[in-house]
Amino acid sequence: MTTSASVPAHSDADSDAAIAGGSVTDRLVEANTRYAAAFADAGLDSRPALRVAVVACMDARLDVNAVLGLANGEAHTIRNAGGAVTDDVIRSLTISQRKLGTRGVVLVHHTGCGMETLTEEFRSELETEVGQRPAWAVESFRDVDQDVRASLRRVRTSPFLLHTDDVRGFVYDVKTGLLREIDPA
Ligand SMILES: [Zn+2]
Q: 175: domain range?
């Protein structure tokens, strides 16, 4: 993810106007009409063809299918802020493996993640503002390599997963498009 303080990599008058006019969703719906007109994937199985699940950050610059060369129907993709392996990600991975036949797990975090700019103090800020402390951890981090290692451990030690022998973690470089694998040791 990126924070609101981040400067967009690109912006043009058309998209600014669309955002200002509140018509972003309309644009997406129009795009869907074109997508459906050319749709040819009606025969896909709900079980991912490559039997792999990807857990990735929600960052807008991380096009998971493009980065990994994935086609529709080939993988599960689970995303959140930071690509954190939360209880809910374990829930999805458990269903992915036990009900939909996946085996491998690929974690993709990235350079320049907005989670590096947050701290757990964010929860206190929220509590001050709204009068309620969130139950969830912020899952902020300072060292992306260490964060991937911690995430690898959470997947590998989960008692709910059937397959933890093929779990690999990577940092995606938003400046080059390249993945760098993280040694779990
Ligand atoms: Zn991120």
A: 44-181
